[in-house]
Amino acid sequence: MKLTDRLSDHFTLGELLDSDTAIRMGFEEQFEPPARIIENLTALCLNVLEPLRISLNVPLRITSGYRCPRLNGVLPGASSTSQHLLGQAADIKSLYVTNREIMERIIALKLPFDQCIAEHPDRHGEPSWIHVSFGPRNRRQVMRAIGKKDAPRYVSGLE
């Protein structure tokens, strides 16, 4: 597949693979994932990201999608069991709605997500970004990250 190929109506493969860090560090494998990763990214787009995008009717920015093992290994605080490594997760935000609104909409739509995490809320409770994943289990876990960005703790619930 080419980076410009669409995984759904509003999301391209390139958006889910993009990484300035991978480019800077020469991690070429980031942009040539195996077929199973592309299948997982497509499922994430079709089942979660696309329905969310349609419901919100605003563009969503993918700040992190698939991460090859070398990329994941150099990111502070990235878990060695991250669903990003499997192409099952994306970190998202938008210029047009708050990240809290994004998370609330994901929950309200009853989308089949595995985890939906409000990452590193500020002192007003606004998340820095939303992590959402889609995988074989889809446990619909709603959590928030608290504490230091390089060593977060995850607690249940949005509040």
TrEMBL record:
<protein>
    <submittedName>
        <fullName>Peptidase M15A</fullName>
    </submittedName>
</protein>
<dbReference type="InterPro" id="IPR013230">
    <property type="entry name" value="Peptidase_M15A_C"/>
</dbReference>
<feature type="domain" description="Peptidase M15A C-terminal">
    <location>
        <begin position="10"/>
        <end position="121"/>
    </location>
</feature>
<dbReference type="Pfam" id="PF08291">
    <property type="entry name" value="Peptidase_M15_3"/>
</dbReference>
<dbReference type="InterPro" id="IPR009045">
    <property type="entry name" value="Zn_M74/Hedgehog-like"/>
</dbReference>
